[in-house]
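Subject: Cell wall hydrolase structure
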Amino acid sequence: MSLDTNLPDEPFARPSGPLTAFLNRLSGLRYQDLAPSLLAWFGCALIVVAAVTLVLTQRLAQIQQQTRSDAGPAVHNTRAPLSGPLTPDEFTLAPDAVRQLDALSSQIFNDSIPFSDLPIQPARPFIMSPTDIVQYSRAVDCMTAAIYYEAGNETPQGQAAVAQVVLNRMRHPAYPNTICGVIFQGQERSTGCQFSFTCDGAMNRPPNPESWARAKAVATAALNGSVAAEVGMATHYHADYVSPYWAERLVKLRKIGVHIFYRWTGAWGQRFSFTRQHTGEEPVIAKMALVTTPLDALEVPVDPNLVPEPQIEVDTTPLIVAPVQHAPLPEPEPQAPPPPTQAAPPPTPAPTTTNPWPRRPSNASVAAASPSRAAGSPPTKTRRGRATAGQGSVRRAVV
């Protein structure tokens, strides 16, 4: 078998015709001449793609909203369509901000909104200094009221989540930067308050002491560094038996008990946007007088059985002490200088006593003390008349 080696000189030769002419012309262009044209075409293509994407996104959102409206009962919509930025008035739980659905229909509608699969960023701890006890007690009372009236029947986890929403709002630039200011925002209106209990007459009912104490414990922990990490940077929540219009335009985070928690979309829902500091001075809320006692009127209950009866009557009249006036001291009189000191006489030597009866010297000592006689001197006589030897002789005592 033989192979055909007669191959054409250009096995991949370009086809003839207009395409060949275009390719030949294109290959003759330099890169410098080609780059501006390509950039212009590429920019136009990006603009067209972005415009088409925006139109399709808005159209799909309208179709989805129309489908949900057709599936449920009639809805009395008093809000703007779901396009465009949100306004502060839209983030309320007032009657005109929710769909007119019954509890079961609202739960079905809320379940149709998916939870976000993005990671939840926990908030930073907040610690309010108790140095100023008046401001600290106001913050604790306002937080306690929010927990009691908004989540009084919830678990401690659900109550802590509500407290975390208050703290997140206090740090966000869209809300007041005090605890009481956040909770009672919009309280002067009959509808449209941020927390419904502040304007629907719920505070006219006296709180249950046990439930109030439980809510106060959660509020105190929240103001001393406790963080509900499961709700992250949530700034909104509502019960599952209502369906607010703003729920679809926020990021759905978590459901705890009967409450569903949301955060802002975009940069406003990120942790770096929650940077505001507490002002340190809480406003005075007149409505809080319905549920709390002013701090200056508190009285400590005392058991009379534990107080001993006084045994001694103590006079508590203040003593008046007259100032003591001291008489001036007399000036000291000048004194004469002391006389000059005289030298003491020298001591007198002690007298020596002599024995009137001297001791009789011995003969030996007398002989030693007597001068030696010369040769040929006459002998001397003793007391008894006897002579002694001359020179060189030794005298002998006579008894």
